[in-house]
Design goal:
Layout: E1 6-10, H1 35-44, E2 47-54, H2 65-83, E3 89-93, H3 109-117, E4 126-129, H4 132-140, E5 145-149, E6 161-163, H5 166-172
Parallel strand pairs: 1-2, 1-4, 2-3, 4-5, 5-6
Helix pairs in contact: 1-5
Binding site for Mg(2+): 11, 13, 130-131
Cofactor: Mg(2+); Zn(2+)
Subcellular location: Cytoplasm
Length: 174
Amino acid sequence: MSATNKALFLDRDGIINIDKGYVSQKEDFEFQKGIFELLNHAKSLGYKLLLITNQSGINRGYYTLKDFETLTEYLQESLLKELGFNLDGIYFCRHAPEENCACRKPKPSLILQAAKEHQICLEQSFMIGDKESDMLAGLNAKVKNNLLLTTNFLKTSHSWIQCKDLKEMMELIK
């Protein structure tokens, strides 16, 4: 089967929601300004919406897998209520960096797994994140378009685009 779909591969903490450090309860979950507009825009253009997130708080013992699953259900229900749709796929790594697993960003395996399962053409897709590890995961997976949300613009030789907010990102997604 050929890869015919395009996708937004989205980091969670810092993109979908404000990163408050190891967010695991809905009381601490606050949607990022502009995320509903970004998701709606991408969906209207036919993009699959795929969450790619490191959640090392699970293996570090800060919260449980059940906490993560409950918060993910809340996220999906909130998107459905607000937008009439939710994310097309959720892919996460529960490992801490020192575990040296195969799935933690910046390694590309979560993106590649999602791309395979959803028949995604990486040349037509975007990786959207707020950390260098998100951008490197996109580059390592050969995602053509990598957008970094940052207010601390960096000089870099890497081929990602730095954006000051989600509105600026939305303008680049066509």
